[in-house]
């Protein structure tokens, strides 16, 4: 994000308490600080949604904290193990 004064910073979306749009877009953090940013209200919301979607996709790829086998490979592995056990 970029403040109106030109300062660049990044914010963890989990630390955002609220976003106001009264002419300027103001981001309020849970610790009480707030920033007037250059981005439009809709752009800030879109960035938050993109971040959350990416985090959800990364979590979906993990199984108990470890990288999981791709979903498409799971049935093939089970079928392969089952077929070899029958032979």
Question: Can you describe what's shown?
Answer:
This protein is of the alpha+beta class. The protein has one domain (13-86). The protein is 39% helix and 24% strand. The protein contains two helices and five strands, in the order E-E-E-H-E-E-H. It has helices spanning 41-60, 73-86; strands at residues 16-22, 24-29, 34-37, 62-63, 66-67. The strands form two sheets. The chain has a three-stranded antiparallel beta sheet with strand order 1-2-3, with no helix packed on it. Strands 4-5 form a two-stranded antiparallel ribbon. Pfam families: FlbD (PF06289). InterPro entries: SwrD-like.
Please summarize what this structure is.
39% of the residues lie in helices and 24% in strands. With 87 residues, the chain is α+β, with helices and mostly antiparallel strands.
How big a fraction of the residues is strand? 15-25%
- How many strand units? 5
- Our measurement of the CA-to-CA distance between the termini, rounded to an integer number of angstroms, reads 61 Å
Number of helices: 2
Largest sheet: 3 strands, antiparallel
How many discrete structural domains? 1
| Radius of gyration computed on alpha carbons | 22 Å
Shape label: elongated
* Helix content estimate: 25-40%
Low-confidence parts lasting 5 or more residues at pLDDT below 50?
82-87
Strand order of the largest sheet: 1-2-3
Summing up helix and strand content along with how strands pair, one would put the structural category as: alpha+beta
Q: What letter string, H or E per element, gives the SSE order?
A: EEEHEEH
- Mean pLDDT comes to 79
